[in-house]
TrEMBL record:
It holds the Pfam family DsbD_2. This is Urease accessory protein UreH-like transmembrane domain-containing protein. The chain crosses the membrane at residues 7-32, 52-75, 87-110, 141-162, 174-197, 209-226. The keyword Transferase does not apply. The lineage of its organism: Bacteria, Pseudomonadati, Pseudomonadota, Gammaproteobacteria, Candidatus Competibacteraceae. Residues 9-220 form the Urease accessory protein UreH-like transmembrane domain. It comes from Candidatus Contendobacter odensis Run_B_J11.
Length: 229
């Protein structure tokens, strides 16, 4: 079952995964905010309602996916020995997080293949986002954010696997909510400070540290499951 430590870990994974978010979503944020760039007399913070709306839509899609994944995992545990199934799913999620850490650090890009597979679904969803372009209101930005939340992303997929072991739809949704909130600082900052962040998040030491932290979370999840077994 998911506990407070898991929710905190999901938030920290979102936070440390910002190095991946920059690569995956930096171009999207830049394109979406291009038409909102401040003109003389228009302060930079005028972009904030739009950036918040983009990200609110994105996180709403994460939560929806988390609810579905958590509900599916809860249903699967009822088909087998609930305790054993829960522990098995938790170990699987921990292994997936270790793969995610290797991916974030640039040590083994195995999850890029999963992103490529997710591209099949993305090609069907992406055209819906064009209905809200060009963005003129925060409501349109929210709609684009809803579509953006389904962008193929190994980071999101890894947390969704974790949500399957969360114990139910509610916990799965909360796990993805915490993760989404963790990604928020980096993605909000991209809209205003993308140039300044580029060198920092691409530094090998930063990527290695982020990957190592996620690997530790994965090892922790596996160790908890083994002790409970």
């Amino acid at each position: 079952m998911t506990n407070l430590i898991d929710f905190l870990a999901a938030f920290l994974i979102g936070l440390t995964g910002g190095v991946h978010c920059f690569g995956m979503c930096g171009g999207i944020v830049g394109a979406l905010t291009l038409g909102l760039s401040p003109l003389p007399g228009h302060p930079l913070w005028a972009q904030l309602p739009y950036l918040l709306a983009y990200n609110a839509g994105r996180i709403a899609s994460y939560v929806t996916a988390g609810v579905l994944a958590g509900g599916a995992g809860g249903w699967m545990t009822h088909l087998a020995s609930a305790h054993r199934a829960q522990l098995g799913l938790q170990i699987f999620a921990g292994l997936f997080m270790i793969l995610l850490g290797l991916y974030l650090a640039g040590w083994w890009p195995i999850l890029s293949r999963l992103e490529q597979a997710g591209g099949v679904l993305w090609r069907r969803i992406e055209p819906f986002g064009r209905r809200w372009l060009p963005v003129r209101t925060p409501a349109q930005a929210f709609g684009i954010g809803l579509v953006w939340g389904w962008l193929p992303c190994g980071l999101v997929y890894s947390v969704l696997v974790w949500a399957i072991s969360a114990g139910g739809a509610l916990n799965g949704g909360l796990l993805l909510l915490c993760f989404g909130l963790g990604t928020l600082p980096m993605l909000l900052a991209m809209g205003a400070f993308a140039a300044a962040l580029t060198g920092f998040v691409r530094h090998p030491a930063v990527r290695s540290l982020a990957g190592a932290l996620v690997i530790l979370f994965g090892v922790y999840e596996i160790s908890v499951a083994v002790r409970m077994g």
